[in-house]
Each structure stands twice: as C-alpha cells, then as structure tokens.
Design goal:
The complex is a heterodimer of chains A (461) and B (421). Chain A is mostly helical and 461 residues long. Chain A contains 15 helices and no strands. The longest helix of chain A has 41 residues. Chain A is flat and about 85 Å long. The N and C termini of chain A lie far apart (65 Å). With 421 residues, chain B is mainly α. Chain B has a three-stranded antiparallel sheet with strand order 2-1-3. Chain B contains 18 helices and three strands. In chain B, helix 6 packs across helix 7 and helix 12 packs across helix 13. Chain B folds into three domains: 56 residues; 121 residues, no CATH class; 218 residues, Orthogonal Bundle (MetI-like fold). Classes of the chains: A mainly alpha (461), B mainly alpha (421). At the A-B interface, helix 5, helix 7, helix 8, helix 9 and helix 10 of A face helix 2, helix 10, helix 11, helix 12 and helix 13 of B.
Chain lengths: 461, 421
C-alpha cells in the first residue's frame, strides 16, 4: 500500500471525524437551544478532524521511511536469502530485481538467483502493507475517539483549532529558513570537503582549469583546479557582453515607453517584452546555439577572422543580453515612474527639450533605482545556466576576444555533475565550490542593490 | 526685412539658431534611439518565435512510406483474445511480423525502398492490429503509412547523400513517400530515431512534476505569506524569515539543483530522475515567488475590512480566513500561476538531479523515471541528426503554447478579479 493510498485513507477518516464531530456539537445545540456553547459546531468538527489526520500523517511519514527497510530485513531473514551473493553491488541488484517483480514493475528477473527472492518479497510486502494499514486505522480512530470524547458544550474547540492553525502558519514560513539553511549547509559541507583535497589558494587564484574526473581522487593535481578562467568567462559573458546589449536597449526602451510612446503602442509593446521575459532559458539557449552562433561565426569569417568558433562568448552573451532586456527595462520603468512629475514639468518650463529633460533631470533622479536594477540583472546573468550550457564552450580560456571559446561557472557545474564522476572525486566536488562562490556573489549583488536603493534614494515628497 | 526680425526677436542670433537646430537634432536622435531599442526587442521576439514556429511545423510532420498490407496473406495468426492480451505485440514479433512487414514493403516499394523503412515500423502495424483484431481476417489490402528511415527522411528534405535524395524523389513522385502530419508525435515518447520520437513522455513528466510543485509550493507559500503579513511579530526571527525569502527569490536556479542533489537525492537515492524529487526541488524555487506575490495581494486588502471584522467580534484567525484570504486569493493565484510557468520552463536544476536520462516510456507515477519538456528539448538539441532539429523546435512550440496558456489564465484572473479599493 503506497503512502499516497494511506494518506487518502487518512483524509477519508478525517472527513468522517469532521462530520461526526459536527453532528455531536449540533446535538448539544438541539438539546438546549438557549445555551451558548463555547465554540460553534464547525470548530468541534475541525478539532476532531485535526486529531484524526495529523497523528496519522506523522505516522505515514515515518512509516514510508521505515517500511522498505523492514521489508528488506525480513526478506534477508528468510531462508531464500541464504543464496544471496554477499558482495555489495550484485546483492543490491538481486534484491532490487526481485522487488521490482514482486510489486509488478518488471515482468521477470535477469539473474536467476533472484527468482527465489520474489516470493519472500511478496509475502513481506503484503505483511507490512497490512501492518501499515492497521496502524493507520488504529491511530486515526484512536485520535478521533480522544477528540470526540472531549467535545462538550463548554469545550473551547475554537482556541485549540486556531492555535493549531497558527502553528501550521509558522511552520510554513519556517520552510524558507530551512531552505536557505539547507542550501548554505550543503554548499559549505561539500566545499569544505573539496578544499580538503584542493587548496583554496589553487582554486581561487590558479589560472588553469582542467579537472580530470578519471584521475586518482587520492592525489588531485591542485594546479588543474584554477577557477580564474571560469570567473573571467562568467564576468565577460554575463556582466560585460550581456550588459553591453541589455543596458542600452533596456534603458532606451523603458524611456521610450514611459516618455514618448502613446498608450496604444505601450499596450502592445509591454506585453511583448513580458513574453520575451517569459521565454524559458532553454529556448534562448537553443536559439543561441542554432541560429545566433553560426550567424556570428559566418559574420566573423566574412570580415576575415579565421579562427572564429561557433561556441563564441559573443553568441552566448548577446542572447543572454536579449533575455535580460525586459528585466532592465521594467526596473528602469519603475524607477523613472517614481520621479515626481513636478521635476519634469519644471524642466519643461525652463525650455528644455524632452531628451534634455530625460537625460539631465529624470535619469539622474532615477539613477539609484537603475543602478540597483542593473546589479540585479548582473546577478541574474551570471547565474543563468542553460544559455551558456548550450551556446558557450566547455573549454576554459583566459582571453578578451569575444569570438574565443569561453566557459562559465554554471557550465562547469553542469559539466561536473552530469558526468560519470564519483561523488568523492574533487572534480565533482569542485561543482559545489563553484556553486558556493556563485551563491555568495549573487547574494552580495542583491544586498548591494538593496543598499544602493536605500542609501541614495532621494526623498522627494 | 532681416533687420526687422532682429529687432522683434533679439535673441534669435545665427548662433542661437544653430544651437537650437542642434538641440532639436539631438532630440530627434534620442527619440530614434528609443524607437530603435523597441523595434530591436520586438524584432528579436518575432524572429525567435517565427524561427521556432517555421522549424516546428516540420517537426509535426514525418516522412512516411505508403505500404499496402494484406493481413489475410500475411500468415499471421491470432484471435480476439491473443491479440488484445498485453503480450500481443511480443506474440506478433515471435511470428516474424517485422519480416512480414518488410516483405509487403518490398512488393510495394522495391528492395531499396523497403530497406529504408524504419526498423520499428512494424510496431505501427502491430498497434493497429491489437486495437482492431478484426483486421486480421480482412482480405483487402489495408494501406499503412509507415515511418521511413531518417536517412530517407533527410533525402526527402533535400539533404543527405545523393542516392537517398534520388530514391526519395523517385518514391515521392510515385506517391509512395510523403511528409504526413504526425499526430503520433503528441502520443509517443523519446526514441533514438527522430522518426520515432514523441513528446508525450516528457509532457507527462512535466505534468507530474508540476503537480508535486503545486501541491507543495502553493499551500506553503500562501500560509507563509499570511503569517508574515498578518501575524508575524516584529522581531529578529521574522526579519530572518523575510530576508531568507527575498534571498531565495534571487538565488540562481542552478543552486536549487545543487540543493536537490545534495539533500533530496542523498535521502532518496532510489528516486533519481523521479518527478517527485524534481517537483520538490522546483517547489523550493517557486515558493518564494508565491510568498512575495501573495504578500502583495494581502497588502492590497484595505485595513478597514480587517477592522470591520474585528469590530463585530471575529478572532484574528477568523478575520484572515473569512475575510482577507478570499479577497487576496485571486492575486495569490495570479502569482502562483506565474511562478508555476517559470518552474515549467526551468531546466538547470532538473539536469543536476538527474532528470536527463533517456526515458522511452511515459512515467506511470511520481516515483518512476521521467524527463520533462525543457530537459527533453535540451537533450534533443544535442542530437546531430537533422530530423531532431525540427523535432526540438516542435517541442519548443508545445512548451511555449503551455506557457502562453498559463500566462493568459493569470492575466484573465488578474483582470477579472482585481479590485481597486
């Protein structure tokens, strides 16, 4: 019986508890219409339902971890398991094959030895399914009876239910902290393991990147783990090329849309920009790799660059810039709209043209917001993965030529973790160290953006 | 005349006129730059979508060979029972169905043509037979459009080797080879040949993953938003929660993949590439988006409604669940749909947690190996075969259609239910 079935049973019993609790609470009211019970019947109903469902859910969670272990143990204890190979991998394979057949996922086993295990598996699974089901019912009914007996006219069910609601709300908001903590802890843990094998100095200041996942993990060559070319590639593609595209185009389209365009044009162009922002990055990556990169290569060859690559930094950077345009544009839009119109009107009254007003009055006043927006855009660009995975190269080059092949932090994370390397190898662990650096840099950029807005925002009103 | 002008407009010196002209020119140039930026952005959008659509149309078609199949002469045996049993296809394979199909193809197309029938073409005939066992007793030949090999398909498209192009044009002129609309693309799964691939496996994986994401992220996000906006005391813990939610919204998605890899896959090592793990990872990514948009929706509910409810004796929980939540829900739903649309297009975290395996059968439940639409696009984009280019674009078209649908629903909800107080 899968956990989902058990959960459905629990919900069904909870519903029954809800109805029974409400019926009992109504019966008080019917018996004595003059009395004023402490809570309305609906709260008694919820009280019973909570006592039925929550203990059962706790049990199901624990059970779904425990049951597979118990099943395996009882199979191992059966006489048929005596023929099992004692050795790790094969043993696991036999067990999982027999298990797959027993639950009907596979038609038959490959290893004939596993055949004997199917029947013990079937027995153990049905036995523990039965136990899980019985315990679920017992807990649900027990909780329900406990709650049911406490229902009396003067019982304050509402305060109890509301206290539970508050606890659930608090738990929901703690998920965010847990996630942050989980990210931080897992990155730090794996990074520390990585730095136990490769010195941080080699990693942060070395200029050659070429980890070999097949090398001996006991004795890694620190000089192959220099991440400077990756950092440079990330900055070059995400913070330089992409921003050269995105900042002017994003800013100018925001200015045109807010200051020049008539409402009809705005009504058409703004959704178009939103669509551009909503296109998944894998589509941009495909577009960059298949359409833009060959175009750039051909153009470069046409003007006489002989060694132009189809995996140039330029193609990935330009497409990433296009992806960022709507982001910069909406940020700039917001900060320009926040400038009070009295300033604009004053500038017009002095005889300034529209463009002079924009570039000398509105733009300086909106600058903190725009700078913050650009910082956020950079943090998005350097964390962007699919465009660079599909369009940029995996070769780490320290070069300032945009037509060169270049790689980024995110490309290497994907490359290291989608390979065949083992989890204990420094090449695999280096992905976590890179991820940690990326995490810290994007966090720093986001904090800096917040600070810029707070520190430099002029209070006009 | 000139003198008069000087007297009436004393500041209009030639230098002034020149300056003014320059300023106006600057104004015009500035405006042009703005127009240029808009035109460029929209042009890129149109180029991008047009490019995908043009290629994608090809991806919804495939080159098919017309093979008349005479069941009565085929020597295949079977009855209602054996042909509808789950093992029917295996039974037919044992009877040498592949060779029979090849034989009929040879009769119709010649040896050369029959050799270019896709290896798995007989499965289409077998599928037709198992869905309608009565065909077996039919004496009239039944015409089947069977997929051609990918070599012949590229020959038909005017690429590939000259022999294939010649063969393709010969068969096409005889009306035996044609690009047919391929509805099967929507119902098949991943395969090694572009002629045999379909999108349903990835689509179903996406749907299962999104269900998990929604079930986890929506309640948690809404409840967290309610707590933070309505109940949270102003203290250090609340600040910590707020800071971490805002940070999570800005963390690159690939970091969530690292989290899923290090935590979820460490706890559930058997569920590699299962929609359950993918959905959990994406839920953590989507939750902050839902919290932030949910808080904005709650903020938009005017305080007078809370005060009114409190004044007639509602408890704080009743105020929120009876009054604030129903009013804020449309805004919350809009934010949720937008967050879900982002999660649907997300690729990088799912790559890291192993949803990039070759999965040739659609996932049956939340625990079985699956892939999702964007990852399928990524995998196909790596294939060298020309046919995959069109198939990838077709998959992108489907993904974009889904995103468009979700965003339209969000916009509709916003327009329909948004109130200004």
């Amino acid at each position: 019986m899968s956990p989902i079935t058990l959960i459905l049973i629990a919900i069904g019993l909870g519903l029954a508890g809800w109805l029974i609790g409400r019926a009992k609470a109504w019966s008080f009211q019917k018996a004595d219409p003059e009395a004023r019970p402490a809570s309305r019947p609906i709260y008694h109903a919820w009280y019973v339902a909570i006592w039925v469902v929550i203990p059962v859910l706790v049990f199901i969670t624990l059970w779904s971890f425990a049951a597979p272990q118990l099943i395996t143990q009882s199979v191992l204890a059966s006489p048929a398991a005596a023929d099992l190979p004692t050795f790790g991998f094969e043993r696991q394979a036999w067990l999982s094959e027999a298990r797959a057949v027993a639950i009907g996922l596979a038609p038959g086993v490959f290893n004939e030895g596993a055949e004997a295990l199917i029947e013990p598996f079937r027995e153990a699974i049905s036995f523990y399914n039965w136990i899980g089901f019985a315990v679920t019912i017992v807990i649900a009914v027990g909780g329900g009876i406990f709650a049911f007996l406490r229902i009396r006219p003067d019982f304050g069910a509402r305060t109890k239910v509301e206290r539970t609601v508050m606890i659930v709300l608090l738990l929901a908001s703690l998920v965010a902290i847990l996630t942050t903590f989980g990210i931080f802890a897992s990155l730090v843990f794996e990074t520390v393991r990585f730095f136990g094998m490769v010195s941080p100095v080699d990693f942060l200041f070395g200029t050659f990147w070429g980890p070999d996942p097949m090398s001996n993990p006991e004795n890694p060559d620190g000089s192959r783990y220099g991440a400077i070319p990756l950092f440079w590639g990330t900055i070059f593609i995400g913070a330089i090329i992409a921003m050269i595209v995105a900042i002017p185009l994003g800013l100018m389209s925001a200015i045109y849309l807010t200051q020049y365009a008539n409402p009809t044009l705005r009504a058409w162009v703004k959704p178009a920009l939103e669509i551009l922002a909503g296109v998944p990055t894998v589509v941009y990556g495909y577009f960059a790799a298949l359409t833009i990169a060959p175009m750039i290569r051909d153009a470069a060859v046409a003007v006489g660059v002989t060694n132009a690559s189809t995996e140039s930094a330029l193609a990935a950077g330009v497409v990433m810039g296009v992806m960022i345009i709507p982001f910069v544009s909406s940020m700039a839009d917001d900060s320009i709209a926040a400038v009070p119109s009295a300033m604009r009107d004053g500038s017009y009254a002095m005889g300034a043209t529209k463009s002079e007003t924009i570039s000398r009055v509105l733009f300086p006043a909106a600058l903190p917001g725009i700078v913050a927006g650009i910082m956020l855009a950079v943090s998005r660009a350097i964390g962007e993965t699919m465009i660079v995975v599909m369009a940029a190269s995996t070769a780490a080059n320290l070069s300032a030529n945009p037509l060169d092949r270049m790689t980024t932090v995110t490309v290497q994370i994907v490359k290291m973790l989608t390979g065949e390397g083992s989890f204990d190898h420094p090449a695999t662990l280096s992905a976590f160290a890179l991820g940690f650096v990326l995490f810290l840099v994007t966090l720093a950029l986001n904090f800096a953006a917040l600070r810029v807005v707070k520190r430099f925002r002029e209070a006009y009103e | 005349m000139n003198n008069m002008a000087d007297i009436s407009r004393p500041t209009r010196t030639p230098q002034f006129e020149a300056r003014l002209a320059k300023r106006y020119r600057a104004e015009r140039n500035f405006k042009l730059m703005g127009q240029g930026a808009i035109v460029f952005s929209v042009a890129v959008l149109i180029f991008l979508l047009g490019n995908m659509l043009m290629n994608g149309i090809g991806g919804f078609q495939r080159a098919e060979l017309a093979v008349p199949f005479n069941f009565a002469e085929s020597g295949l045996t079977g009855d209602e029972v054996s042909l509808t049993a789950p093992s029917a296809v295996q039974t037919l394979e044992m009877q040498g169905m592949a060779e029979v199909v090849h034989f009929f193809a040879e009769e119709a197309l010649g040896t050369e043509g029959a050799d270019q029938l896709s290896d798995q073409a007989w499965r289409d005939v077998a599928a037709a037979l198992t869905s309608d066992p009565a065909l077996l007793s039919q004496t009239e030949p039944v015409l089947f459009n069977l997929p051609a090999s990918s070599d012949l398909a590229s020959g038909l498209a005017g690429e590939g080797s000259p022999e294939m192009q010649a063969l393709a044009s010969k068969l096409a002129s005889e009306g035996k080879l044609a690009e047919n609309w391929d509805w099967g693309f929507l119902s098949r799964s991943d395969a090694t040949s572009p002629q045999a691939v379909g999108i349903w496996g990835a689509l179903k994986g996406s749907i299962l993953t999104m269900i998990i994401t929604l079930v986890l992220a929506f309640p948690i996000g809404i409840l967290a938003a309610l707590y933070l906006e309505e109940y949270a005391p102003k203290n250090r813990w609340t600040d910590l929660i707020e800071v971490s939610i805002n940070n999570l919204a800005a963390v690159p998605s690939i970091i969530f993949g690292l989290l899923g890899l290090a935590v979820f896959l460490a706890v559930f090592p058997n569920l590699r590439s299962a929609p359950l793990i993918g959905g959990m990872t994406l839920a953590l990514m989507t939750m902050p988006v839902i919290v932030i948009s949910g808080r904005n929706a709650i903020k938009a509910v005017p305080p007078s409604i809370r005060d009114g409810a409190l004044a007639v004796g509602a408890s704080p929980v009743q105020v929120v669940f009876h009054h604030v939540l129903p009013l804020a829900l449309p805004g919350m739903l809009t934010g949720t749909i937008i967050g879900m649309a982002r999660a649907l297009g997300e690729t990088a975290p799912l790559l890291l947690i192993g949803m990039r395996a070759f999965v040739a059968t659609p996932p049956t439940d939340f625990m079985s190996p699956a892939t999702v639409l964007p990852v399928q696009i990524f995998l196909w984009s790596d294939e060298i075969d020309r046919g995959f280019v069109e198939r990838t674009s077709a998959a992108i078209v489907i993904l974009l259609l889904f995103l468009l649908l979700m965003n339209s629903v969000a916009i509709y909800l916003r327009n329909k239910f948004e109130k200004t107080w």
